[in-house]
Amino acid sequence: MEQRQLCWAHLKREFIKISERSGVSSNIGNALVKQQEKLFELWHRVRDGTLSRCEFQLLVTEIRDLIKSSLQEAANYEIGAQEKTPLAKTVRTCRQLLKVEQALWLFVEVEGVEPTNNAAERAIRPAVIWRRTSFGSQTKAGSNFVARMLTVVTTLKSQRRNVLEFMTQAVSSKRHNQPTPTLLPQIPADRSCC
To answer: Are residues 102 and 130 in the same domain?
Structure first.
């Protein structure tokens, strides 16, 4: 959980859904949306350099407390196990979010972590399009092969590495019982790690 960041684009959609429900859900949802909007106003200021990360972290403390408070308020409502009312949906969503609440805030603490998974979704888009246009694979082995190859290609492209060179090296290494190349990012020799 300490290394997980939930996607705030998805959270925003959930908060809006809650706000569009009737009764208590609407109030809770509106409070969540309001805090999410404040959070992203601050985040955009961090991104454009008009707010330091330290100031951002201090200001987010209040937002975090208010979001947790709203989630807790919803989670405290009693609902039946099979209840399907708008309030029951809100309560279940908020209870689930409270279980992973720590994963909402990693981007605040760790520089370089994004609050949304837009980059990841863009990375898997070619695979989704391929699956839709080719009708996927007809066997489990074929599906595994495609998944692995798409992972390799996407990973190498994101690292600006040559796919054909990597695949040639991988096949050659396997044939000669040598260590296979890695997909992990390669750190240049002249660059030191922190």
So the answer is: no
Q: Is residue 98 part of a domain?
A: yes
Distance of alpha carbon 9 from alpha carbon 76, whole angstroms: 25
Is residue 187 predicted with pLDDT exceeding 60?
no
pLDDT of residue 119: 67
**Which pLDDT score, from 0 to 100, does residue 157 have?**
87
Tokens of 22: 């009737």
User: In the chain, how many H helices and how many E strands?
Assistant: 8, 0
Dist. CA 35–CA 65, nearest whole Å: 10
pTM (whole model) above 0.85: no
Name the domain count of the chain: 2
pLDDT at 185 > cutoff 90: no
- Which uninterrupted H or E stretch holds 159? none
Which single residue is written with the structure tokens 């979010």? 97
Range of the domain at 24: 8-109
User: In this structure, are residues 94 and 71 in contact, taking their beta carbons and an 8 Å threshold?
Assistant: yes
pLDDT per residue over 75-85, tens digit each?
999 999 889 99
pLDDT at 192: 35
In which region does residue 140 sit, left (phi positive, over 0), alpha (psi from -120 to 50) or beta (all else)?
A: alpha
Distance CA 88, CA 25 (A): 9
Whether 12 and 104 map to the same domain: the answer is: yes
